[in-house]
Structure formats: structure tokens, C-alpha cells
Specification:
Elements lengths: L1 E9 L2 E7 L4 E6 L5 H11 L15 E11 L3 H8 L10 E11 L4 E5 L2 E2 L2 H11 E4 L2 H6 L5 H6 L7 H46 L3 H32 L4 H11 L8 H34 L4 H20 L5 H67 L6 E8 L14 H11 L11 E8 L7 E2 H4 L2 H15 L7 E5 L7 H14 L4 E5 L3 H4 L4 E9 L4 E7 L2 H13 L5 H13 L6
Parallel strand pairs: 3-13, 3-14, 8-12, 12-13
Antiparallel strand pairs: 1-2, 1-4, 4-5, 5-6, 6-7, 9-10, 10-11, 14-15
Helix pairs in contact: 2-3, 6-11, 7-9, 7-10, 8-9, 11-12, 11-14, 17-18
Length: about 600
């Protein structure tokens, strides 16, 4: 059950808190007072969408908090554990606090027991805690396309629908692959020669990563050696220019050979100079030799360089042609061309394989659909009896309700087998034919039929049911569905449209019966329904033209009596209306919890 719901800064609500009671809770109030805002708050709290316009003007954010008490072994507990939400048992129940806020800029955040939660998991949690049954459901029931969804709520085979969907998707995956193979076949017929030409060019050139690396290194290395050779050549030339520096030094050395009879002081100086000249000349000779050796190391094989440059040019031309900038891209292009050519040459073989896969898929889908159909027929038998029983108690004695099954007839995607082996086209027609009678939701259409009065024919709901009858059928479905349901809280938002008087009293009684198994929250305008409430709340709107706000209060027994009297007579509460209200409450059946 939900113990407490607090709302702040949402729509017309400034700040309010509601402490619900176990069992049957009724909410009444004037039209436009904001009763449905509570439904919006619950929807937002349990993962529903909301925009920044939802935030009350002047507030920075809207905040909704819900305090739930979840019984032991409830399915939501397992989900919460997988989501990492801490749980603590208290009095045979687990408290679960959900808090969600929405900023004025539209950003929402949520927490479950203080653990952050995104909207997806929050919705899964919310589905197991709260089941909201709003007015628009009446209109949905008038749409036959939605009837299969209502029926499937009753099927006993939990994964039957999911098996059908997986099998159906697998079939259409095969069909999509066949479409691709057919396109490749046609493109191959038109462009096989061009593909072959491009591939032959690459095969003839035979590009490889090793070859490209060697060619590139050779060209880059040769350019580097040429530059170094030029540098050393200039150095050698500078030393050897005009006979060479070394020769000049040795000439200077020999020029200092003088007679021995010169002054001893000068002879010693000359000897020193000659020795220095000899040392420098020797060093220059050594440098010249070493420079010459280096110069020889940088000799370039012109024929090898020419071949490498031609090969590198070939790579660059193919790069441009195939719109790539590196050898890996060129090799990928070559592999793709080989694969594409193989595809075009073997398209018919692949089509055969896909047709075999499709045949297996169709057989699997048919088996899954058969299983789902059986589950639906069993569910249809159950709800037919359950709804007719409920309708009889809802003052529709003699009414008959049934579920009509129809055969699907849906077109398949058109595949163009022109030019392909005729046997393949015939096999496609044979294999795919069963798919025209199967869909992602099963092999049948479903429609609810009603005969509201004895002797009248069974007809679609939209043709025979009034607003009041639709409301009763929906309540009958809901009550039947609630058997063994996993939810904690059932919320009814003015589904009693079109009914009044004794029928309204029976509706109130039915909701009260539901509250023996679930906490029920009902927004209503009917005094007969309110008379069965165990807890009665009134929503009111107040304020000036500049600022309006919605408030809610829990009514005492006497205040509830006055509110029921107001619902009976309008704004004026008279002694007569009070007496009538008291009579309604006294006659209401209130079994113990």
C-alpha cells in the first residue's frame, strides 16, 4: 500500500501531503478542483513523462514522494534487489520510499530508498506497485485493435507473447537478408565486369604492407642520402679546391727548408713552425680521407631509386583512385571487392540458404503462435465467464460477453526475383505464404462482443455499448484481472462515467470488495461510490485570479457525510440530503478488512 503521498510545486499544488488508509480510499471534489493532478503526481512518481510546464509557476522544482509498504514475497522486492536498492523488513513489510523531482528547466531525478534511479527501471518498479485505471481506458476499450492487449493480460503462459515476437523478428531478419542478396544479385548482373576490372587492377599491382613499407623507406632513404652526399661533397670540394688545402700546407712545410748555417734562434723557431705545418697537413689529409669515405657511402643506385619511385607512384595513384590515404585502406578495398564479387557470383546460393533459414523460422513462429493461441482461448473462456458474472451483479442481467477470434491477413514485403532462378521465386512463395496469417502479436485478431440485453445479437462493443455499459465492462475486466495480481495499489480515476443510482451503489460495492485484496484509491463524483469508502478525501481549489492552488483534506465521518450530501444535492446541503447521505452510508456493505 501507499501510506503517504507528498507533492510540492506540481501544477496547481503548492504543497500538500496525503496519508492514505488501507482498503478503500475515495477522493471527491468539485469539477476543476484538481483531483486528476493526484493521478498525474502518481504517474510522475512511478516513471511517467513530465515537462517543465508541470512545475508550478514560481517554483524552482516539483517534488513528489511516495511511501510504500510492500508485503513479503512481492515481485517488486526481487526487482529492487537486482537494482541494488537496500531493503529492511519491518512488521512483515518492506518500506520503499520513492522520491522524484523535476526542475523548472525540465531535468528530472529519482531515488528509491536513496538509491539513484533512471526513468526506465523506475517505470518497471512503478508497474509492480501502482496500477492506474483512468477515464481514457473507456475509449480504449472501444478500439478493437487494443482488445488483444486486454486479453493477453489474462494469459497463463507468461513468455508466450515474447516467444512469438522473437520468432517473428527472426523471420523478418531472414527476409531483410534476402532483400540484400537480391539487390547484390541485380547489382552484380549490371556491374560484375566493373568489379572484376577494379579487382584485377589491384591483384596485378599486388599491394602489401611489407612492400609498401620497403618502397616508401627506399624513396625516403635515398632522398636523405642524396642530401648528405651533397653536404659531404661540398666539404671535400672545399678542402680540395685549387689543388687542395693539404697540398698547400705541405708546400708551405717544404718552403721552410733552410740552410743549417742560419742563426740558431731562428732555426729553432722555423723548426717549430714546420712541425706545426706537418701536424695540420696530416690532420687535413686524414679529414679529407674520412670525408671521401663518407662520400662513397652515400652513393645512390639510380636504377633502384627509379624503380622504387615508380612503385611508390603506383601506390599513390591507387590511394587516390580508391579514396584512401594508407596501405591498410587499399588492402581493405581489395578485400571488399573480392567479397562483393563473390557475393554477386554466389548470390543465388546465399538466397537458398536464407530461404532454408526462413522456412525454419516460419515453422518456429507457427509453433509459438499455436501456443499463444491456445493460451488466449483459455483466457477468453475465463474472462467471458468472469465478466458475465460481474455484469450480472452490475445490473446487466442477461448480458452476454464473448471474445471473437479472427484470422490475420497481412501483406508481405515484395521481393523482386526477376532474373533469379525460377525455382527460388516459387520456393519463396511457398515458404512465405504462412506469414500472411501471422504477425508479431500472434496469429489472430481479437474483438470483444456484447449483447447487452437478452435476445439481442452479439455485436462489437463500439456498436452496442453505452458509456455506462463500457464503464461496467471495464470494471468487470479489472476485477477479474485483479485475481492473483502482483500490484499493491489500484487507482480508479472517474471510470464510473455514465452510471448512477443502484448501479453506482454496486460499483462502490465492487471497489470495496477489491480493497479486501488491494489498497484502492478512487476518484469519483458519485455519492453512492463514496458511501462505501473507508477513508474519504476532499480536493478543493482556492485563491485569487493571480494565484490558485489545490488542497486536499481527509474528512471525518461527519464531514464525509456532508460531502456525500453535497454530491447528492449540489452546493446546498439540506436536512433531506443529509438524511439520504446517512441512508447511503448505513446501507453500504463494509466487510471487515
Amino acid at each position: 500500500m501507499i501510506q503517504r503521498l507528498s507533492i510540492q510545486g506540481l501544477a496547481l499544488i503548492d504543497r500538500l501531503a496525503i496519508e492514505f488508509s488501507p482498503g478503500f480510499n475515495v477522493i471527491t471534489g468539485e469539477t476543476g478542483a484538481g483531483k486528476s493532478i493526484l493521478i498525474r503526481a502518481l504517474d510522475f512518481l512511478t516513471g511517467g513523462k513530465a515537462t517543465s510546464e508541470t512545475v508550478r509557476k514560481g517554483c524552482e522544482q516539483a517534488v513528489v514522494c511516495g511511501e510504500f509498504w510492500v508485503p513479503e514475497k512481492h515481485p517488486v522486492l526481487e526487482l529492487l534487489e537486482t537494482l541494488g536498492v537496500p531493503l529492511e523488513l519491518q512488521d512483515k513489510h518492506y518500506p520503499v520510499l520513492i522520491r522524484r523531482q523535476l526542475s523548472a528547466k525540465g531535468r528530472s531525478q529519482a531515488w528509491v530508498n536513496d538509491i539513484g534511479m533512471t526513468s526506465g527501471p523506475l517505470k518497471e518498479v512503478g508497474k509492480l506497485l501502482v496500477d492506474v485505471f483512468a477515464q481514457h481506458e473507456n475509449q480504449r476499450l472501444m478500439d478493437p485493435a487494443l482488445h488483444v492487449g486486454y486479453l493477453d493480460d489474462f494469459i497463463s503462459v507468461a513468455d508466450a507473447k515474447e516467444q512469438v515476437r522473437r520468432a517473428y523478428d527472426a523471420c523478418f531478419d531472414s527476409i531483410e537478408k534476402m532483400q540484400l542478396w537480391l539487390e547484390r544479385f541485380r547489382s552484380g548482373e549490371q556491374g560484375r565486369d566493373f568489379l572484376q576490372f577494379r579487382l584485377d587492377e589491384l591483384r596485378t599491382f599486388d599491394p602489401t604492407e611489407e612492400d609498401y613499407s620497403q618502397v616508401y623507406s627506399c624513396c625516403q632513404g635515398t632522398k636523405h642520402r642524396s642530401k648528405l652526399k651533397e653536404v659531404f661533397h661540398k666539404a671535400v670540394a672545399a678542402i680540395d679546391e685549387n689543388g687542395g688545402v693539404g697540398s698547400k700546407l705541405w708546400e708551405a712545410h717544404h718552403a721552410l727548408d733552410v740552410s743549417k748555417d742560419i742563426d740558431a734562434e731562428f732555426a729553432q723557431k722555423i723548426l717549430e713552425l714546420k712541425n706545426r705545418l706537418a701536424q695540420v697537413a696530416t690532420e687535413v689529409d686524414d679529414l679529407t680521407f674520412e670525408l671521401g669515405q663518407f662520400l662513397g657511402r652515400f652513393d645512390v643506385d639510380e636504377s633502384e631509386l627509379e624503380a622504387a619511385e615508380e612503385r611508390l607512384y603506383g601506390y599513390q595513384r591507387l590511394f587516390r583512385k580508391h579514396n584512401t590515404a594508407e596501405i591498410k585502406g587499399l588492402l581493405e578495398t581489395k578485400a571488399n571487392l573480392e567479397r562483393e564479387l563473390e557475393y554477386t557470383e554466389k548470390a543465388e546460393e546465399h538466397l537458398q540458404d536464407e530461404l532454408s533459414d526462413l522456412q525454419k523460422g516460419v515453422e518456429g513462429l507457427a509453433a509459438s503462435c499455436k501456443k499463444l493461441t491456445a493460451a488466449r482461448k483459455q483466457a477468453a473462456s475465463f474472462i467471458t465467464k468472469a465478466v458475465e458474472k460481474e455484469l450480472m451483479e452490475l445490473s446487466m442481467k442477461g448480458a452476454r460477453f464473448s471474445v471473437e477470434f479472427g484470422r490475420l491477413n497481412r501483406p508481405l514485403p515484395a521481393l523482386d526475383f526477376e532474373g533469379v532462378e525460377a525455382a527460388l521465386a516459387k520456393r519463396w512463395e511457398s515458404v512465405s505464404a504462412p506469414l500472411t496469417h501471422m504477425g508479431r502479436e500472434g496469429a489472430e485478431s481479437v474483438q470483444f462482443l456484447l449483447s447487452a440485453n437478452p435476445g439481442e445479437p452479439m455485436l462489437p462493443l463500439a456498436r452496442v455499448a453505452s458509456g455506462g455499459e463500457i464503464s461496467r465492462i471495464m470494471l468487470a475486466l479489472k476485477k477479474s484481472l485483479s485475481i492473483d495480481a502482483d500490484t499493491c495499489v489500484l487507482v480508479f480515476d472517474e471510470i464510473d462515467t455514465g452510471i448512477s443510482g443502484r448501479v453506482a451503489n454496486v460499483v462502490g460495492k465492487k471497489m470495496r470488495e477489491l480493497s479486501n485484496s488491494f489498497q484502492v484509491i478512487c476518484i469519483t463524483h458519485l455519492p453512492q461510490v463514496a458511501a462505501h469508502a473507508q477513508a474519504h478525501f476532499r480536493v478543493s481549489k482556492s485563491g485569487s485570479q493571480k494565484r490558485t492552488q489545490t488542497a486536499i483534506e481527509k474528512l471525518s465521518a461527519s464531514e464525509s457525510l456532508e460531502e456525500i450530501a453535497r454530491l447528492l444535492s449540489g452546493e446546498e446541503v439540506s436536512k433531506t440530503s443529509l438524511a439520504n447521505a446517512r441512508s447511503l452510508v448505513e446501507k453500504a456493505v463494509l466487510p471487515a478488512l
